Amino acid sequence: LTTTGGSQGLGFAISSNNVKQLLGADPAPWIGVNALFIGPELARALHIPSEGALLVQSVVEDSPAQRAGIRGGDLPALLGDTRLVLGGDVVLAIEDQRTCHAECIAHEIHDQALASTMKLTLWREGREVLMEIPVQRPQILAPSLREGKSAWGKE
Prior knowledge:
Blueprint: H1 16-23, E1 33-38, H2 40-45, E2 53-59, H3 64-68, E3 75-79, E4 82-86, E5 90-94, E6 97-98, H4 102-111, E7 117-124, E8 127-134, H5 143-146
Antiparallel strand pairs: 1-2, 2-5, 3-4, 5-6, 5-7, 7-8
């Protein structure tokens, strides 16, 4: 560490498995949603017909999910210490496998890594909606960085 407050001499490390997944040796599929897993108690309280589900919090601009019409929430809420956003789509199933627990979801999503689409069963406005979403590899860099601009907007 330095006495000037700079970051010289500091290093950060991530595991080789994370690097392989991010850079393509084992890519995870990406559709562009930020979602929160909820269990059976919260699902019942929100009148969601499932033992577990994914609440779509937000959708990434110009992502496969946005182009397919998946909706993020618009009603901020606080549940204990957890901040969430209600009013968006709820993912009930991925490839016909119910989203009963977080590990099940991770497994189903990873299995779609080589597929071209992912079939989702959504709960929207009190009814089930089936949707097929194109799958793509995650975008590692923000669009401004891919275009050669710095994170602060300067070129």
